[in-house]
Design goal:
Blueprint: E1 12-14, E2 17-20, E3 23-24, H1 25-32, E4 37-40, H2 42-55, E5 60-65, H3 72-79, E6 84-87, H4 90-98, E7 106-108, H5 115-124, E8 127-130, H6 133-146, E9 151-157, E10 167-168, E11 178-179, H7 183-192, E12 196-202, E13 205-206, H8 211-232, E14 238-240, H9 258-270, E15 280-285, H10 287-290, E16 294-306, E17 309-314, E18 338-340, E19 350-355, E20 364-371, E21 379-382, E22 404-407
Parallel strand pairs: 4-22, 5-6, 5-15, 6-7, 7-8, 8-9, 9-11, 9-12, 12-14, 14-15, 17-19
Antiparallel strand pairs: 1-2, 2-3, 4-16, 10-13, 16-17, 16-21, 18-21, 19-20
The protein binds pyridoxal-5'-phosphate (PLP).
The site of pyridoxal-5'-phosphate has 15 residues, from strand 15 and helix 10.
């Protein structure tokens, strides 16, 4: 048997079934009109924000990385909870605008921004996080043509990365950000050009569970921002410290020690020179805010035996759960937390693999896990589905189409 990932806190059984926000899985599916279904718990998202506010220094704002979950009801919920939204495309700009979010709270990072996207962001009053000098030139030209001083920050490619990070996005040659040594000259040029200068964005990696590694990266990040602002001779109105706060997906993963991260960051900020007293700092988080608040429900269509192994074939799959299938940024496939939702908390009776309905051997949601006996018609739950599920899976593959989504 292969171990399954840890089921996040906050999920109970009612009448032997998984319940989310006090409603059974079958009732949720009935309300949504069928499976496969992503269910996101507003209470769990709120609780996560509360925990972050309690742990982080008061002057550190919380941003939501929209790519983790752009479902409109989630964006509307977040609008009342966080201080900013980080987007990475014109499409996401349209999504946050459709959700009624004030573009003044929106920062747009990401490589390859097209002119139309730059123009939409400048017109709306969002902040652009510049990924290259070329992009800076285009943003300045578009601002001049529109007669608007664009709000610009520089995304810095730091000369360090986040240790133990699942996805490294800083350090060495990268498509993200502008190499630190070239930043002061550009910052001077932007401020000289009369833009609405917003400061630096430094993102060093994702999905770290080690508080010491995050604390070290945050200290390095603050030090780099201070050094670059000094070298450029410009003010630092804002500084986005990146994120990287991870969640436990796999067997043996332990939750991040948030209190330790917050305490260390508090010390770093308290030691800053007086000229940074007005600098607004923020962290940008995706999965940490919403990942554990989401569950993917899918129904068993077939139960079959092959060479003595049990396969539970469900009506969902990697087209909604690319990461759980092990095909999104993982080297060795390990099991996410998966359970038979219709028999939640029941004893383990057999070893079974949960496979999706796609005709590819990649479509595995759980491999050789220990489960109560799953029957045709039972619901299966994949946990940690609130981030990079619906938004980061190839829903059109094999003509399957998107899953249903609901916020409860
Ligand atoms: C994806 C991304 C995030 C969010 O990452 P999580 O691991 O979901 O917290 C934050 N910032 C940037 C720049 C990103 O690309």
């Amino acid at each position: 048997m292969k171990p399954l990932g840890p089921i996040p806190a906050g999920y109970d059984a009612i009448d032997g079934q998984l319940a989310i926000a006090g409603v059974t899985a079958e009732e949720l599916v009935a309300r949504a009109g069928g499976t496969p279904l992503f269910v996101y718990s507003a209470d769990l998202i709120r609780a996560r924000v509360t925990a972050l506010r309690a742990a982080l220094p008061a002057r550190v704002g919380l941003h939501f990385a929209v790519k983790a979950n752009p479902f409109e009801p989630v964006l509307r919920l977040m609008d009342g909870l966080v201080d900013g939204f980080d987007i990475a495309s014109g499409g996401e700009l349209a999504m946050v605008q459709a959700a009624g979010i004030d573009p003044a709270q929106v920062s747009f990072a990401g490589p390859g921004k097209r002119d139309a996207e730059l123009e939409a962001a400048i017109t709306a009053g969002a902040t652009l996080h510049l990924e290259s000098e070329g992009e800076a030139d285009r943003a300045l030209a578009i601002g001049a043509r529109l007669g608007i001083a664009p709000q610009l920050a520089i995304r810095v490619n730091p000369d360090f990365d986040l240790k133990g990070s699942g996805m490294k996005m800083g350090g060495g040659a990268k498509p993200f950000g502008i190499d630190a040594e070239r930043v002061p000259a550009l910052a001077r040029r932007l401020v000289g050009a009369g833009v609405a200068w917003r400061g630096f964005h430094i993102f060093a990696g994702s999905q770290a569970l080690d508080a010491a590694a995050i604390a070290e990266t945050q200290a390095n990040t603050v030090a780099l921002a201070v050094r670059l602002a000094g070298e450029a001779g410009v003010a630092l109105p804002k500084c986005n410290l990146g994120g990287g706060f991870g969640i436990p997906y796999f067997p043996g993963d332990k939750p991040l020690d948030l209190a330790a991260v917050g305490a260390a960051l508090g010390e770093v900020l308290a030691a800053l020179p007086g000229e940074f007293a007005a600098t607004r700092f923020c962290v940008e988080l995706g999965r940490y805010l919403v990942g554990e608040a989401g569950v993917y429900l899918t129904r068993i269509v077939d139960r079959k035996l092959s060479h003595g192994e049990v396969f539970l074939v469900v009506d969902g799959g990697l087209h909604h759960q690319l990461a759980a299938s092990g095909n999104f940024g993982t080297v060795v496939r390990r099991n996410y937390p998966v359970a038979i939702a219709s028999r939640f908390g029941a004893e383990v009776e057999e070893e079974a693999s949960v496979v999706g309905c796609l005709c590819t051997p990649l479509d595995r949601l759980a491999e050789k896990g220990g489960f109560p006996r799953g029957e045709v018609g039972d619901l299966v739950a994949v946990f940690c589905a609130g981030a990079y599920g619906a938004s980061a899976s190839p829903a059109m593959f094999l003509g399957q189409g998107p899953a249903r989504e609901m916020l409860v």
